[in-house]
Amino acid sequence: MTQTIHNVTVLGSGVLGSQIAFQAAFHGFAVTVYDINDDILADARKRFGALAEVYATQAPTPEGVDGKAAAHQALAGLRYSSDLADAAKDADLVIEAIPEILDLKRKVFGNLNDVAPSSTIFATNSSPLLPSDIADATGRPDRFLALHFANEVWLHNTAEIMGTAQTDPEVFDTIVDFATKIGAVPIPMHKEKAGYVLNSLLVPFLTAALELAADGYAEPHDVDKVWSIATGAPLGPFRIFDIVGLHTPYNIMANGTDLERRLAQWLKDNYIDQGKLGRASGEGFYTYPQN
Ligand code: NAD
């Protein structure tokens, strides 16, 4: 048996929170967006306006559904609140997408537990943390799990679902079902793994590519050519670096192993310090004259 989800509250209206909220609203759920104050929510409204335009033209829709109408209906239906108790009062599911600070997430889930109905399911969208890092702070570890989306969720629509040993299987199945209903592809994980599936594959892959270039074995463009031609993959690792933005891997690797720190330094010296930050800056490993 799965629980029926009608009302979804998203904590955090930043990059991923706004996308998750819109994705759910676009697929007909009643969505409340919570953030810490009304100024931030005013910015979020603008972000949602822009997202509505993106969804109207880019998001896949079920047959017979007009994307433009669905996007504008989703936008009009969003509810905003900077009061946690108000935001959570009717929620069947709360999805947390706040900054990647463990103590903050634990505190917010603790506060949420005090004000949300006891039936509400809690999910975290954290990328690097395991749900068991947070579970005890939620006060309801059986109704808590990770539901992890990728950036540009309307296009890259994986939903990696990862419980702890304490997560109720019925809650897990409810979230698998919910992910499907919001147009995502659920990826159930049988046990906890840092990096889920995607980053368990992607991080070693990108690190290996960087080592090939930084240590002078091959040019970045040639590394990409090998990968694309030999495997048929549309993007090589350095194209992916450009899309992610070079700051993110730099920040992660600068605090890593000796090898990772050396690769971070190479990225900094050869790209970041020259303003080559990736696609968003107009240049990274490739140039993007259209920006
Ligand atoms: P972000 O910085 O863009 O947004 C964070 C939002 O949380 C901001 O709007 C901020 O005002 C709000 N916030 C801060 N403190 C809060 C609190 N106490 N209560 C409620 N809201 C609060 O961050 P993001 O990139 O959207 O990342 C959010 C989460 O999503 C992180 O756990 C991150 O690992 C995960 N994630 C991010 C990506 C990505 O590509 N950005 C991809 C997958 C998962």
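^ nicotinamide-adenine-dinucleotide complex. The CA atoms of residues 46 and 241 lie 28 Å apart. The radius of gyration is 20 Å.
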